[in-house]
Write a structure and sequence with these properties.
Length: 380
């Protein structure tokens, strides 16, 4: 009886041991899929089974991580590789990422510089500045001065403008255009004129646009008038055996030709043109200087005046140097001290060498044109 009990106990223990041992993949595959019926209460009480790490082998790349069933198939491992998040882009391309970062930083710095330049120059935080408009040399082209005047006019940080004149005059129309541009600027901001060595004829025309004129005692100014230059080369052409012929639609169309002397009617016609331009000059002087028209007509016989003479005639307001002109402009602009910046223009876009060469070429072209066709000009 006791032997029978001992055998029964051993068989039960062996059966329990086999029940507790994990089944391998081959046994599971031989038996096929099994439906497990678990008691929910028993499942909550039973501890999680410990799984042994998978042995390294040829299929180690497809083994399941710790905690997963050891019998996962290769298809499941492949699926996990496909859905695994990819490696970071900047880790895969570190050099390209570094270059892109540098470019982004450079772009941000440039944008910040542009914004800062606007804020400090024309924005709400811009400091007070004074502008300078230079009218120097022969006045033949008004475009650079007009562009600079417009820029100063549109800049809210510019409190006032000094017109620095050192010019003997020039062509009629450019001088008139500069005068008109400075008058538009003077309608919005204080404009003061300083006349340096020479501010005669067209130079005076441009400079009188300011609200106040300062000149040195020996400045040459005035010379209010218009002249026209004609070249008559008939005797030279006759000596060379050159005889010009031309057809014109009217009697005065050829007025000013260098191939023959002027006729009386042509001279009277051209004199009328000169006189009308002179009248424009005189009327603008009277309006700008607030002088009677008859007085200006008496002064406008073409003569030049020194700064001291011009002061007595009402053509300038005060005698002094450029330092005095700046001090007067600061007061008129509401500045107690020095401005944050002086804007000097028009800007010179080309080097002095290019200006010299281009000026020489322009002079040669002018001489060639005068020698090959009738040409005349009107000058202040």
């Amino acid at each position: 009886m006791s032997d029978q009990l001992t055998r029964d106990a051993g068989a039960a223990a062996e059966q329990a041991k086999r029940a507790d041992a994990p089944e391998n993949a081959a046994t599971i595959g031989a038996r096929g899929p099994q439906r497990l019926e678990l008691d929910p209460a028993a499942a909550r009480r039973a501890p999680a089974p410990a799984t042994a790490p998978a042995a390294a082998g040829p299929d180690s790349a497809g083994t399941a991580p710790a905690g997963a069933p050891a019998f996962c198939c290769p298809a499941a491992a492949l699926l996990r590789e496909l859905v695994r998040p990819p490696k970071s882009w900047f880790r895969r391309h570190p050099i390209l990422f570094f270059l892109l970062l540098l470019f982004s930083l450079f772009l941000l710095l440039n944008i910040a510089g542009v914004i800062a330049a606007y804020v400090t120059s024309q924005g709400p935080f811009a400091g007070a500045r004074l502008g300078v408009v230079r009218v120097e040399g022969m006045i033949l082209d008004s475009e650079p001065v007009l562009k600079w005047c417009k820029q100063l006019e549109d800049d809210p940080s510019v409190r006032g403008v000094l017109v620095y004149v050192n010019s003997p005059g020039g062509a009629v129309v450019p001088a008139q255009e500069i005068y008109a541009g400075l008058r538009r600027l003077a309608a919005k901001k204080p404009v003061l004129t300083y006349m340096s060595s020479t501010a005669a004829s067209g130079g005076y025309y441009a400079g009188m646009a300011g609200h106040y004129i300062v000149a040195s005692p020996s400045t040459l100014t005035g010379s209010i008038g218009v002249r026209m230059e004609l070249t008559e080369m008939k005797e030279l052409f006759d000596w060379l055996g050159i005889h010009a012929q031309s057809l014109a639609s009217g009697e005065l169309k050829e007025a000013g030709t260098p191939f023959r002397p002027l006729r009386d009617d042509e001279r009277a016609y051209l004199q009328d043109l000169v006189q009308d331009m002179h009248n424009c000059f005189v009327e603008d002087v009277a309006a700008a200087r607030k002088l009677p028209l008859d007085k200006v007509k008496s002064l406008a016989d073409g003569r030049a005046y020194t700064g001291r003479q011009a002061l007595g005639l009402g053509l300038v307001d005060e005698l002094g140097d450029s330092a005095l002109a700046w001090e007067l402009l600061k007061k008129r602009s509401g500045l107690d001290g020095e401005p944050d910046e002086y804007l000097d223009g028009p800007p010179k876009e080309k080097s002095w060498l290019w200006s010299l060469l281009s000026g020489s070429l322009a002079e040669l072209d002018r001489l060639r044109a005068e020698s090959t066709r009738p040409a005349f000009g009107f000058y202040y």
